[in-house]
Amino acid sequence: MRKSLRGTLSLCAAAMLLLITSCVTIPKASVELSGELTQMILHARVSHLRLLDQYTRLQKDKVDKFMEEDYVPSFTANFVKESGVLANIQSASTDEEKGTEIIEFAQAAIPIIDGRRSSMMKAVDEMDRLIRSQVEAHYQEMLHVNRALTAHLGSAAEVVETRKQLQRQLNVDTESLIPIDKVNQVMEKMLKAGAKAEDIPSLVNDFKEKVNKVTNGKAE
């Protein structure tokens, strides 16, 4: 997944850098290729966002699996023990009373379970939005660079003058654009045994701070 997300981006950047660093005499084919790069960038953007959709869906599947296999069984066992619902059911004299106890237990437990799942899904969505905004912003920058490159390809002198500037704009840090490792770290902490729902917002905020530090060139 990580290689797929980053591979196309690197290909587009490499193709643009090849044009920028080519000889000062610009052949007609280079001008035509620059125009074709616009379509390559647009297709790469769509591919990246689709892969991001798949990646986010995988994280949500992890949440559902955690809820089903770990959280719900553990929570239910503890909740039953602490609430005394089993004793109440056993002491109930009629099936109707037993049914009432079960319904009251479910009414008390379900909102807590749903709240935990909702908080984790919200965390996944927040991380997705941050990554998505960075991907969108970078592809807009690539399109801007390509438009500038196309405009200057007709003049060899202007290519020389703008070469360094365009190279700097294309020097993307893929870790800041697609911080998969940082997402995985949040998921591991969020889904581990004993994790608390109230800790989830701080995990997401920590994720945002770390990503912003990398984006702003202040990574530790």
Entry summary:
This protein has 220 residues and is an all-alpha fold. The protein has one domain (2-215).
Description:
With about 220 residues, this protein is an all-alpha fold. It has one domain. It is built from eight helices and no strands. It has helices spanning about 1-20, 30-85, 85-90, 95-150, 155-170, 175, 180-190, 200-215. It is elongated, with a radius of gyration of 26 Å. The chain starts with a helix and ends in a 5-residue tail after the last helix. It comes from Pontibacter flavimaris. This is Lipoprotein.
Detail the topology: elements first, then pairings.
Layout: H1 2-20, H2 28-83, H3 85-91, H4 95-152, H5 156-170, H6 174-177, H7 180-191, H8 200-215
Kindly state the number of beta strands. 0
How many domains comprise the coordinates? 1
N-end to C-end Cα span: 26 Å
Which sequence of SSEs, written as H and E, runs from N to C? HHHHHHHH
What is the helix tally?
Answer: 8
Question: What structural category arises from helix and sheet content?
Answer: mainly alpha
Strand content: under 5%
Compute the average pLDDT. 76
Q: Largest sheet, described in full?
A: none
Q: What spatial form do the alpha-carbon principal axes imply?
A: elongated
Helix content: over 70%
What value does the Rg take, in angstroms?
A: 26 Å
Q: Which residue ranges are poorly predicted, with pLDDT under 50 across at least 5 consecutive positions?
A: none
Oligomer: single chain
